[in-house]
Amino acid sequence: MKKVFCIANQKGGVGKTTTAINLAAALAALGKRVLLVDLDPQGNATMGSGIDKNKAERNLYQVLIGEATIQDARLRSEAGGYDVLPSNRELSGAEIDLVQMDDREQQLKQAISQIEHEYDFILIDCPPTLSLLTLNGLASAHGVIIPMQCEYFALEGLSDLVNTIKRVHRNINPGLQLIGLLRVMFDARVTLQQQVSAQIEAHFGDKVFDSIVPRNVRLAEAPSHGLPGIVYDRNSRGAKAYIEFGDELIKRVKKDALRDQARPPVERRQS
Ligand code: ATP
Ligand code: MG
């Protein structure tokens, strides 16, 4: 079953971390066992889950360079009801350490494989780059979820990301798929946003999630309280949207699994 998902977009500030945290909390609220991997040296997913990134005894950097096990490094987000593999700025050093390793894009995958069976979903919050760290994320994942804002330049960077996904699919991880695009920070009153949203639908068809996350100040306030938005104010429009998205993702994963089962084995092997 597909369950390891990268939340990726090389554009900065588009809502990756907000999506990773709130999707993790939404899936946990829907009864799923979730691990959130913070693959960004900014450590925002760690902090937003209520874990002090500088006080965590072990972190993802140590796991990637083989100084800690993933079992020892993960922590519980009591606030969110899911586990977190924490990070802080130390992780930026991993780029240099990894370059010298064999299988340098496979280190995260190897770590995740040790605990994969313990979870229903593993979400990876990627940094705003197409770096070796992000490659490690893409090499580990079954699929990519791309949060995007419906703005004029939104589509421009998207082709770079889609091409990177295709390259990783071809060369490193044949299982990798684009799961879908999630429209976030959406303001329906802005005509341009409606136009770009329609363009995205026309271009990507059923790869666009039906759920749309509105611009909602409660989602932006939540991290300063160390809480996912859906816990901070579960009745806010933003929280409801992420719960709906969690539900949609679970259904989509089930539908994909049924479709894969229905295909003859030869075709399955080739895809
Ligand atoms: P980076 O590229 O730096 O990792 P990111 O893509 O992870 O950024 P976020 O950190 O999730 O983006 O969001 C950027 C800013 O937008 C944050 O201040 C966040 O609180 C705010 N934000 C995200 N989603 C929403 C939303 N739906 N409504 C209002 N504010 C939002
Ligand atoms: Mg982020």
From TrEMBL:
PANTHER family: P-LOOP CONTAINING NUCLEOSIDE TRIPHOSPHATE HYDROLASE, PARA FAMILY PROTEIN CT_582. Residues 3-177 form the AAA domain. InterPro entries: AAA_dom, DNA_Partitioning_ATPase, P-loop_NTPase. This is ParA family protein.
